[in-house]
Amino acid sequence: MSRRSTGRLVGRAVLFLAALSAVFPAFWTALNAFKNRVDIVTPTPLFIFTPTLDNFAYVLGRDSVFDGLFNSLVTSGAAVVIGAVLGLPAAYAIARYPNRWSKDIQFFVLSLRFLPPVAIAIPLMVIWLQLELYDTRLSLIITYTLLTLATVVWLSVPAFARVPKEVEEAARVDGYSSYAIFFLIAVPIASRSLIGAVAFAFVLVWNEFLIALMLTTSDAKTLPIVASELTQLGRDVPWGILNASVVLLSIPPLLFIGVLSGMLNSAFKRKSS
Amino acid sequence: MKNKTTLPWVFLTPAMVVLAVLALVPTVCAIVISFEDRELSRPDGNFVGFDNYLALFSDRRFVNAITVSLSWEVITVGFTMLIAVGLGILLFECVSPRTRNILAVLFIVPVILPRVSAAFVWKFAFHPLYGIATYPYKAITGQPLDLLSNPLTALGTVALVDVWQWGLFFSVIVLKLLETLPPQPFEAARLDHARAWEVYAYVALPMLKAPLISLAFVKMIESLRAFDLIYVMTRGGPGISTETLDMYAFSQGFIESGRISYASGMAVLMMIATSIAFTVIWKRAKI
Fold first, then answer.
1. What does the domain layout of chain A look like in residue ranges?
2. What CA–CA distance (Å, rounded) separates B145 from B136?
3. If pLDDT is split at 50, 70 and 90, which confidence band does A271 have?
4. Residue A108 with chain B: CB contacts under 8 Å
5. Which residues of chain A are within 8 Å of residue B125 when distances are taken between CB atoms?
6. At residue A268, does pLDDT exceed 80?
7. Closest CA to A201 of A265, A145, A162
8. Cross-chain residue pair B10–A268, CB shorter than 8 Å
9. N or C: which end of chain B has fewer CB within 10 A?
10. CB–CB of B30 and A87 under 8 A?
11. Which residues of A touch B115 (CB under 8 A)?
12. Contact A242 B124 (CB under 8 A)
C-alpha cells in the first residue's frame, strides 16, 4: 500500500470522527429526551431502554415552556417579517441603484451585525423601562428588528446583484415600471437566495439569548431563556425533561439546514465564476 | 439607470431610518449612562464624568475579566482556525465530491443549534456522574471527572464547545474556498513531486491568505460573545475563572449590585474594541 493511500485512509477516519462529533451530541440528547429518569441517571450510558413520551408531554403541558414557545414564535416571526418587508427593498435599491453613499450604507449595516449585544441590551433596558414597555413582546420585536433588518439587507444585496441585468433591462423595454421590475422580476428570480437570507435571520433571533435575558423577566420570556432556567435547577434535576426542552428548542433552526447550506453553496459558486 | 425613478428613495429610506434609530439611540444612551451613576433601584442618575472608567481600571475583577476574555479569544480563534484548515483540507483531499457534500451539511449542524442547546448538551455530556464524555475516564480510573468545576479546566472545556460549533462550520467554508482555486498550480506542484502537505502549505494556503485572515477576524468578533455558553455552562465560575467581559458586565448590571452605569462603561469599552476590529476587517476585505 502506498503512502498516499494510507494517508487518505487516516484522513477519512479523522473526517468520520469529526462527523460523528457533529451529530452524536444532538442524537444523544434526542435519545435522552425519550428516557425515564432512571435510564439517564445510570453509571453506564444506556443505548437500549424503554422509550417514554412523558418528558415531551410534561414539557408541552407546562405553562412556562408553552408561553416561551409562543413568545419565541411571535417575536422571531414578527421581527423577521418586518426585517424582510423593509430589508428586501432596501437591499435591492443598494444593489441596483448605487449612489455615493452605497459603500457607507453597507459598512453601517454590516457593522450593526457585529455590535456586542451586551452594549445595546443595557441601554435598551433603561429605555424600555422608562417607556413602560419593559418585558413586553413589542419591545423585544422592535429590538430584534435591528438584528433581522441588518441581516436581511446584508445577505440580500449580493442575491439581487446576481440577478442578470439583461432580464431587468428587457422588462424595462417592455414597459415595466421600476417597482414592477422589483416585484415581478427581481424578487422571483432571486427568491432562493432571499429565502436563505430570511431563514438565516430567523435562526439568528430564534437562537438569541443575551438580549432576551436582559429585556424580559416573566411575561415575554423566550424559549431559550425558559430552557436555560430549567438547566439551572438544583439537585433533583429532571434530566429527561431538560433534554426534551432542548430538543424542542433546536428543532426549528435544524429545519432550515437545507436552505442554509444551499445558500452557502451558491454564495461561493458564483464567486469563482 | 436612465429614466428617473423614485424607487431608490422609497425603498431605502424606511429601512435606513429604522436602522439608524434602533442602532444610534441605544449606542448614544449607553455612552450617556456610562458617565452617570445610575443603578437599577434608582431610575435617575447624576453626571459623574469618567468615574466609572477610572473605577474599572482599578477593579481587579474587571482586569480578571479582560484576562479571561483574552485567553478565550486566543483559545477559540486559534483552535477554530486550526480545525477549520485541517478538516477543510481533509474534506478536499480525501473524499469524493458526493461524500464531501454530505459531510458539509453534517458539519454545519453544531453552529445552527441554539447556543443554549449546545451549551446544555455539552454540560450534560461533561456531567461527572452521568456524562457520556466523562464516562470513559470514569470507567478506566474509577474516579469521577469534573472538568467544569475545576478552575484550571473550566474555560478550556467551555471553549471546546465554541470550537466544536465554529471549527466544523469554518471547515466547510475552507473547503468552499479551496474549491474556488484554479487546479493548475496544484498540478504543477504535483509534477514537481511535491508531497500532499507541501502542496497545501506552500501553494494552496498562501493563495487563500486574505480570506483566511478575514475568517479569523470574523471569529474574533464572534468570540466576544461568549456569554450564552458561559452563562449556561459555568455562570462565570468556579469563582471568577470563566468570567468574561460580557459575563461580568451582566453580573454587575443585573445580578449582584444593579450598577447599570458601571456595566455600561464596560459595554462601551467592548463596543470600541469591536469597532476597531471591524473597521480593520472592512479595510482588508476591500483590498
1. 3-33, 63-272
2. 10
3. very low
4. 19
5. 25, 28
6. no
7. A145
8. no
9. C
10. no
11. 207, 209
12. yes
Query: Which triple of cell numbers denotes residue A181?
Result: 421590475
pLDDT digits (tens, 9 = 90+) for B61-92: 899 998 999 999 999 999 999 999 999 999 99
In B, minimum Cα distance to A180 occurs at B7
Superfamily assignment of A63-272 in CATH?
MetI-like (1.10.3720.10)
Residue A267 contacts residue A158 (beta carbons within 8 Å): yes
Q: Name the minimum distance, in Å, from the CA of A82 to any CA of chain B.
A: 10
Residue of B nearest to A258 (CA): B105
Residues B123, B148: contact at Cβ < 8 Å? Answer: yes
Task: Report the chain B residue with the minimal C-alpha distance to residue A43.
Answer: B130
Q: Considering only alpha carbons, which residue of chain B is nearest residue A229?
A: B232
Place of cell 452605497: A102
* Start-to-end Cα distance in chain A: 38
- Respond yes or no on whether ipTM tops 0.95: no
Closest CA to B83 of B187, B216, B179: B216
Cα–Cα dist B210/A152, whole Å: 26
- C-alpha to C-alpha distance for A155 and A182, rounded to whole angstroms: 17
Domains of chain B: 35-286 (1.10.3720.10)
What is the Cα Rg of chain A in Å? 23
Which residues of chain B are within 8 Å of residue A242 when distances are taken between CB atoms? 120, 124
Q: Which residue has the cell 486566543?
A: B74
Note whether A224 and A72 are within 8 A (CB).
yes
Distance from CA of A64 to the nearest CA of B (A): 17
**Position with higher pLDDT, A235 vs B97:** B97
